[in-house]
Specification:
Helices cover 83% and strands 0% of the residues. By secondary structure, the chain is mainly α. The chain has one domain. Helix 3 packs antiparallel against helix 4 and helix 6 runs antiparallel to helix 9.
């Protein structure tokens, strides 16, 4: 860890209110994070009840759920770099929470599309394997399924740590496919999701350079 990061962490830990925050996080951190992750859904439900989702409410909901799913997926991927860079190990449990909520919102995204198309299976499947926009979204969702299923400690023990970690590297594949899907959503998609694409590129770059950076930091001086 860089010296300035150690100094920053020590300074934060010395603040008078830090023990209170640490205690709240330890006791209720996961519950509070889950509540925060549910707020976008509650907001969309409230919009729907007030008739603020427009002429095609399910179409609007589909877009909102997809955006949130992507945000949760990127947040999940950001946890490890943050821990590696700042030694914030308390963030590790958040990774699973963000990942599961990413899948949860992806399911809602798919369901909203089905509802918008009147649950017409023919319309839902039309272009699924020929339209790049639909195909990338479909593949992203498929990749997320085994990640969600194997997210428990029991599944990690069953698979073994090495195989489990290898499998969960597919999170990056899901994110790349999801970004590609979002960017192909017309001109608006390119404008709205370019920042997320940049963030994902930075996270991927960090994953590539971190091993070299860690070796350089561990190299004895003199």
């Amino acid at each position: 860890m860089f010296p300035w990061i150690e100094a920053f962490n020590a300074r934060v830990a010395s603040l008078s209110f830090f023990p209170i925050i640490a205690s709240i996080h330890k006791r209720h951190g996961q519950k509070l994070l889950s509540l925060v992750c549910l707020l976008p859904l509650l907001g969309s439900v409230a919009e729907g009840l007030m008739g603020q989702l427009g002429a095609r409410p399910w179409f609007r909901a589909m877009g909102e759920m997809g955006e949130i799913a992507l945000a949760m997926l990127i947040a999940c991927l950001a946890i490890t770099p943050l821990v590696q860079a700042f030694d914030w190990k308390f963030l590790y449990p958040w990774r699973r929470t963000f990942g599961l909520f990413a899948f949860f919102y992806a399911i809602l995204h798919v369901l909203a599309r089905a509802m918008d198309l009147g649950l017409d299976l023919g319309a839902i499947m039309e272009g699924m394997f020929t339209n790049p926009f639909l195909l990338t979204g479909f593949l992203a969702f498929l990749v997320m399924v085994p990640l969600a299923v194997t997210s428990t400690k029991k599944m990690m023990a069953t698979l073994g740590g090495k195989r489990w970690r290898l499998l969960h590297k597919l999170t990056y594949v899901a994110a790349i496919l999801a970004i590609a899907h979002a960017l192909m959503a017309g001109k608006a998609g390119y404008i709205n999701f370019l920042p997320q694409a940049v963030i994902l590129a930075i996270l991927l770059l960090w994953r590539l350079v971190y091993p070299t950076l860690r070796k350089a930091m561990q190299k004895p001086q003199g």
